[in-house]
Fold:
Amino acid sequence: MSTTPTRKTGRKIVLWRHGQTSWNLERRFQGSTDIELTETGVAQARRAARLLASLKPAAIVASDLRRASATAAELVAVTGLSVTHDAGLRETYAGEWQGLTHEEIIEKYGEQYAAWKRGEPVRRGGGELETEVADRAAPVVLDHADRLPDGGTLVVVSHGGTIRTTIGRLLGLDARDWESLGGLSNCCWSVLGEGARGWRLMEHNAGTLPEPVLGDDD
Structure:
């Protein structure tokens, strides 16, 4: 006699952006370039890790780029958990844009930049489409989330662009609308919670612990 598998409930995904790098300060497009954290970035990660540890995460998965790996290491240090590194969580590869400042991108690739901001599918600098980033990152997140117990929390340590596209994909938003989610500050995070109709956004660009939501429909 077959039985229907019991659906897991109450799981959470915390998508945590890495700490500050020198290229962040210079407003250079990092993409998949492997840039280290600054001393400030390490301190940001250490502070955030102490907060996130209080959520008692069940698992940690991180991009294998150094800025994300070093950020994840701070959470490992206070939780004792191991971390799984996955190249699928890397930031968007942006070809010729990588290493350029915001101003240089607008000067050299103004129309391409404008088209991207309009929500058009653009291979920035000849690199990846945002949908291609979601194609590689979202399955990694879902695979690890599927392994969580009821009520379990997964911490995903990644990059601003990758996190935004992953959230958009998991929420079922049209790719043109992903930009409306806005950016994440260094070492801030977003929280997805499991609801009756799938994943829902509970916190975005947060730097403090989530608070219970009371009466959100009234």
